[in-house]
Amino acid sequence: MEGKNDPVDLKAKKIAVAVIIIFHLVGLAGFLCGPLRPYFIQLVPFHLLLMFGVIVFSYRGPLNRLMLFVSGVFVSGFLVEVLGVYTGNIFGSYYYGRTLGLKVFAVPLLMGVNWVILIFSVAQMIRALGIRHSILASLLGAVLLTVLDFFLEPVAMALDFWHWNWSTVPLQNFIAWFVVSLILLKFCYATDLKQQKYVGATMFLAQLAFFAILRFALA
């Protein structure tokens, strides 16, 4: 349940949803305005940390499960990125730019945070649709995250998130995104987080709209 009879819980959800929508709209406007874009690029790390903070702020379930989820996805997602950068055998041959901030082993620490945000948001949205079978939910979530990556890739290169050593994004990247997302989503459902349907759905749909619009605007 969403804790709909708890006024404090409901207020936290409303604040979280409002913050997600407002900051994505402001960010979108900033990136679409050429003169402002360099300044908004500098704010990307703060935006990711804010979205992570929104998840923690609005969550009202057992904190030990949330911490297990966050630590598991953060470490796994970060290590996959490290292996991907150093070997070129997972996503393809790529390297990170400077936009995402501090790097460890050539990978921004915020990539771990990004995986947490992505997995949490899509997992919660799918649960809100009433899909309870974890394998089916994980498969659907992996498809949705791969679709998100389709819109994300050109934007990531344009904004110096990361760059490919080819002229186009390799098919291998999308296959790897699907597989990694599938595994992390299965882990997420195994932690049995409390349902946060409004926050999760808003977070995922805001990101999808954000990158879809920018993909065509920056093309």
UniProtKB/TrEMBL annotation:
<dbReference type="Pfam" id="PF04240">
    <property type="entry name" value="Caroten_synth"/>
</dbReference>
<feature type="transmembrane region" description="Helical">
    <location>
        <begin position="198"/>
        <end position="218"/>
    </location>
</feature>
<dbReference type="InterPro" id="IPR007354">
    <property type="entry name" value="CruF-like"/>
</dbReference>
<feature type="transmembrane region" description="Helical">
    <location>
        <begin position="135"/>
        <end position="162"/>
    </location>
</feature>
<keyword id="KW-0812">Transmembrane</keyword>
<feature type="transmembrane region" description="Helical">
    <location>
        <begin position="12"/>
        <end position="33"/>
    </location>
</feature>
<protein>
    <submittedName>
        <fullName>Carotenoid biosynthesis protein</fullName>
    </submittedName>
</protein>
<feature type="transmembrane region" description="Helical">
    <location>
        <begin position="66"/>
        <end position="88"/>
    </location>
</feature>
<feature type="transmembrane region" description="Helical">
    <location>
        <begin position="100"/>
        <end position="123"/>
    </location>
</feature>
<feature type="transmembrane region" description="Helical">
    <location>
        <begin position="174"/>
        <end position="191"/>
    </location>
</feature>
<keyword id="KW-0472">Membrane</keyword>
<keyword id="KW-1133">Transmembrane helix</keyword>
<feature type="transmembrane region" description="Helical">
    <location>
        <begin position="39"/>
        <end position="59"/>
    </location>
</feature>
